[in-house]
Amino acid sequence: MKKIKDRWEIRKNWQLFFPFLGFSLVILTAYWISRRLLHTFGLNNTLVEWVFTLGSTIGLTVVMIRFFLWCFKKLEHKWKVAHKWEMIAIFIVFAITGSLSGKLAGPLVEWIGLGENNTHGAIYWTARILLIFPIYQCILVFVGWLFGQFKFFWEFEKKMLRRMGLGFLLS
């Protein structure tokens, strides 16, 4: 435990929440991907189902953890955070926000009357993708606030809007 605390600059026990939540979410994601692959290859309800699921979950978990550690190393100097554990919180916020905005865009497009069943596919997907952007912007700051990273995400948001030529929205 001391090694984990030292590596992630954890000073208080409540900060351990972020590495454990991040690790749990990586395992859960690897499991979901493994189950999808299982169904894609038609291996469900066979003798190899659980062997495949367990093996691919472990393999994907290792690959994803290595990838995220590589990302942490690359972004460590670019993102100005006080402690390394905050980077885990930031990654979790990005994951939640991206997934949630993608999920919310579908029902919102349906609600405004551009449903997948009554609209051409190109119009439906264009509207859905265009709606993801404002949903993402609103949710990003809120979820960042929930995870104690409001300042980071507010600065991130302002920088992104300025780069897109939408800085006038901040006035």
UniProtKB/TrEMBL annotation:
Keywords, alphabetical: Membrane, Transmembrane, Transmembrane helix
Domain of life: Bacteria
Membrane spanning residue stretches: 16-34, 50-72, 84-102, 122-154
InterPro entries to which the protein is assigned, alphabetical: DUF6787 (IPR046714)
Entry protein name: DUF6787 domain-containing protein
Presence of the UniProt keyword Transmembrane in the record: yes
Domain DUF6787: 90-168
Species of the source: Flagellimonas olearia
Lineage of origin: Bacteria, Pseudomonadati, Bacteroidota, Flavobacteriia, Flavobacteriales
